[in-house]
Structure formats: C-alpha cells, structure tokens
Design goal:
The protein is mainly alpha-helical. The protein contains two helices and no strands. It holds the Pfam family DUF1146. This is DUF1146 domain-containing protein.
Length: 83
C-alpha cells in the first residue's frame, strides 16, 4: 500500500469516527432535552412544529458538543510533541 493510500485510509477512519461522535452527541442532546418542561415555553408541545423545534435544538446542541470533543481531541494530540 502506497503512502497516499495509507493517508487516504487514515482520513476515512477519522471521518467515520467524527460522524459517530456527532451522531452520539446529537442523540445524547435529544435524551437530555427530554427533561425540559416544554409546556412552559411552547403553546402546544405535542404539535409537529414543536417536535421539529426539539429535533433542531438537539442537532444544534449535539453538534456543538461534538465539535468541542473533536477539537479537544485534536488539540490534545497536537500537544504530544510539546512535552
């Protein structure tokens, strides 16, 4: 296997890891948002529009949390040569 193929394979593995972390983070955000009392904020929390709002909110919060995790992993791996 050539070095270019190895680099491409490593990039693919990192992409799969990134996708899994983002999806798990979105699922965790959805799970955590289930504890919010939506009745206090929404007129009809059971409506489809309210459900879409919760899905979008879970996606935004989960993605931001995943970016934090992925950035932290990248930063900590860059510090490897510092010490």
């Amino acid at each position: 296997m050539s070095p270019a193929d190895q680099l491409q394979q490593a990039a693919a593995v990192y992409a799969v890891i990134d996708i899994v972390i983002v999806l798990v983070s979105i699922a965790a955000a959805w799970w955590a948002l289930q504890q919010v009392r939506w009745e206090a904020f929404l007129k009809d929390p059971a409506s489809p529009r309210s459900k879409w709002l919760m899905v979008m909110l879970a996606a935004v919060v989960g993605y931001q949390f995943a970016r934090f995790i992925l950035d932290y992993m990248a930063w900590s791996s860059q510090l490897d040569g510092f010490f």
